[in-house]
Amino acid sequence: MSLTRTQSDTLKQLMEERATDLEQRIRETLPKPADETTLERTGVSQDEVDDATTNAEEHFNHTLHRHYVDEMRQIEAARERAGSGLLDCCTDCGDDIGYQRLSAQPFAVRCLDCQDRHERRAGAQRR
Q1: What pLDDT score was predicted for residue 1?
Q2: Which residue, among 118, 50, 59, has the nearest Cα to 109 in the 3D structure?
Q3: I want to staple 90 with a disulfide (CB 3.0 to 4.6 A). Which of 45, 57, 111, 127 is the partner?
Q4: Could you tell me which residues come within 8 angstroms of residue 111 by beta carbon, excluding any fewer than 6 positions away?
């Protein structure tokens, strides 16, 4: 069952809204200039504990940034699939992904059954 025009338009709108949100989050998590010390940025000197906290926060910020960029790439790929009429086509088996699933995650590439198999295989490989 293919998506209706209304469903397709709704999913495109959801992706557009998420992309706009991600653009802002990506800007907010851009790394700070390396040559700028905390003293220069804040006017406050740091001790070893402050340095460790700052390093942990920068690592977390970097992780968030990578996550947001990855999600943006997934949305861009979904937009391309939508343009080709393949947004609701599972990349593994070719069956329909389903509107409910795409409503929850518009950039999903697998139907529920294939996603379940994919996650089980990935979990088994990590062990």
Answers
A1: 59
A2: 118
A3: 111
A4: 90, 92, 93, 95, 96, 97, 98, 101
